[in-house]
């Protein structure tokens, strides 16, 4: 029997020791869909319409028309034009179809990737009937209530008729009874229906398994990644391995269950680390390590609200305040950042400057000899001068921290003083003061009664207070008026650079499920298949 111990990540640790660690690495959004859009395009998600304004923070289903617009340029598209073989394995969550279930307008193959093996949506608790449900439980409750109401109406009408208090035909009673039966049956079938609709495995544009068998997912991701490296080792390549791990429902294979003192989440982290080690070993075996830039990161912070009783399923954010879904607090946006390139990048180097996932776009485009698009604003900055130590400071003086389409906070790196300031204009309100998260909800709101507008804004000096626990005031910080004025000026410049708002891909109707957009490997709704054998 295994004795639980603290989570052990020797492969990720080795990656950090052999590469450069970005200690102030930041996602452009605190949830996955907009964060991934920003990562691939090098642009704040609000510029591409990939930030919501109505509360649906991510794409909600495979059968929606929203997604990364075709006119957006990803770094994969530019590298493909430069002769790179480009592949993505794992989670996409940037849309699939526009007008029919087969147009694949948002598919990875339409955004610069030669190959795709993975899930077009995301990993969800509903894929395994996990304790935490994204939509199944809510739909079951709603249908159950409707069925109960229909049954109660049928009983009331039947009693009234039998007692002579009502007259007419029995048709309304029969209709209510039938409605109660249909609604109740739908409620009981909702779990399998959600699995079939949203838990899909694709190879290229073909569905190869519906619903996805998550028990085999880790082995398949590794097989595909190692196969890609073997197949493309003689030429330039770009491989994005978007792991399904450290995301609920935390599907973990038996060899790793019970290994960590941090419960199922720790077990899942250890399996992720093992998978990272396997991919690094494959690079070495194929003689690719010395000519391959490896980048390791996350798209947002830990999900604090993902807990049941004493079981924490969404991870932790250490000493950083807040978590996933909180647009301003560090815990939602400060993520791991490691880059390794043996013989090029100095091993063990730590970069404390603010950097962003958006910086990957200009970095890899320039390394591939490509040109940055000149017809749009690119918010990312080339990391290589900073990684190589050729420049003492990064390219970001200011970074905007969005919650949906709203700027909740602004970071100012005052280079001449070596100070990083953070100004919060809006923060989430917790139901229980001091709770630290919006327990009882999926994530915190960005607007409305559940947020607090600060006037004057909150100010923190992250250089000395990375946990954002000691807000500064005009009385305690003499430069408070100067910092606030400079930040407001930078925010105004940023807002002017946005231009007309593009169509909101995460808002209604783009983010509403439509049956004719639902991917299905058989005649809808008979969506079940297993076309590949391991």
Automatic annotation (TrEMBL):
The entry's keywords: Calcium, Hydrolase, Metal-binding
**Claim: Hydrolase is one of the keywords in the record:** yes
What are its E.C. numbers? 3.1.6.2
Query: Which N-terminal residues, if any, form the signal peptide?
Result: none
Catalysed reaction, written as an equation:
dehydroepiandrosterone 3-sulfate + H2O = 3beta-hydroxyandrost-5-en-17-one + sulfate + H(+); estrone 3-sulfate + H2O = estrone + sulfate + H(+)
Its biological purpose is as follows: Catalyzes the conversion of sulfated steroid precursors, such as dehydroepiandrosterone sulfate (DHEA-S) and estrone sulfate to the free steroid.
The UniProt family comment states: Belongs to the sulfatase family.
Q: Which PANTHER family match?
A: ARYLSULFATASE FAMILY MEMBER, ARYLSULFATASE L
Would you tell me the protein name for this molecule? Answer: Steryl-sulfatase
**What lineage, starting at the top, does this entry show?**
Eukaryota, Metazoa, Chordata, Craniata, Vertebrata
């Amino acid at each position: 029997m295994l004795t639980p111990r603290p989570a052990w990540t020797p492969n990720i640790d080795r990656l950090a020791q052999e590469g450069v660690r970005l200690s102030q690495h930041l996602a452009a959004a605190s949830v996955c869909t907009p964060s991934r859009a920003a990562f691939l395009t090098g642009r704040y998600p609000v510029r591409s319409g990939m930030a919501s304004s109505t509360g649906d923070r991510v794409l909600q289903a495979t059968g929606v028309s929203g997604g990364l617009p075709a006119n957006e340029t990803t770094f994969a598209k530019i590298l493909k034009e430069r002769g790179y073989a480009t592949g993505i394995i794992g989670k996409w969550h940037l849309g699939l179809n526009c007008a029919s279930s087969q147009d694949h307008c948002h598919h990875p193959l339409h955004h610069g990737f030669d190959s795709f093996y993975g899930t077009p949506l995301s990993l969800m608790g509903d894929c395994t009937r996990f304790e935490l449900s994204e939509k199944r439980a809510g739909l079951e409750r709603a249908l159950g209530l409707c069925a109960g109401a229909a049954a109660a109406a049928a009983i009331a009408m039947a009693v009234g008729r039998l007692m002579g208090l009502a007259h007419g035909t029995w048709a309304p009673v029969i209709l209510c009874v039938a409605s109660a039966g249909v609604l109740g049956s739908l409620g009981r079938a909702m779990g399998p229906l959600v699995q079939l609709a949203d838990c899909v495995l694709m190879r290229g544009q073909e569905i190869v398994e519906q619903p996805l068998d998550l028990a085999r997912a880790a082995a398949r991701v590794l097989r595909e990644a190692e196969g890609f490296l073997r197949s493309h080792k003689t030429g330039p390549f770009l491989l994005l391995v978007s792991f399904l791990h450290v995301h609920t429902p935390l599907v973990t294979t038996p060899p790793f269950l019970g290994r960590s003192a941090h419960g199922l989440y720790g077990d899942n982290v250890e399996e992720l680390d093992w998978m990272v080690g396997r991919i690094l070993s494959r690079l070495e075996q194929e003689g690719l390590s010395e000519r391959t830039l490896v980048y390791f990161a996350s798209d947002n912070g830990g999900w604090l609200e993902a807990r049941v009783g004493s079981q924490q399923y969404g991870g932790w954010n250490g000493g950083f305040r807040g978590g996933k879904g909180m647009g301003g607090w560090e815990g939602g946006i400060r993520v791991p950042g490691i880059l390794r390139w043996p013989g090029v990048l100095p091993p063990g180097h730590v970069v404390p400057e603010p950097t962003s996932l958006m910086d990957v776009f200009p970095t890899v485009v320039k390394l591939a000899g490509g040109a940055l698009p000149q017809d749009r604003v690119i918010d990312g900055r080339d990391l290589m001068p900073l990684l190589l130590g050729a420049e003492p400071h990064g390219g970001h003086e200011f970074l905007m921290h969005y919650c949906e389409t709203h700027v909740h906070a602004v970071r100012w790196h005052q280079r001449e003083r070596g100070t990083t300031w953070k100004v919060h204009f809006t923060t989430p309100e917790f139901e229980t003061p001091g709770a630290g998260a919006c327990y009882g909800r999926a994530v915190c709101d960005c607007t409305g009664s559940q947020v607090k507008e600060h006037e004057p804004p909150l100010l923190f000096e992250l250089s000395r207070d990375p946990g954002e626990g000691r807000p500064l005031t005009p009385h305690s910080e003499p430069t408070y008026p100067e910092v606030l004025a400079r930040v407001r000026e930078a925010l105004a410049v940023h807002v002017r650079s946005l231009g007309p708002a593009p169509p909101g891909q995460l808002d209604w109707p783009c983010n509403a499920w439509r049956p004719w957009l639902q991917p299905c490997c058989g005649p809808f709704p008979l969506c079940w298949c297993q076309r590949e054998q391991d």
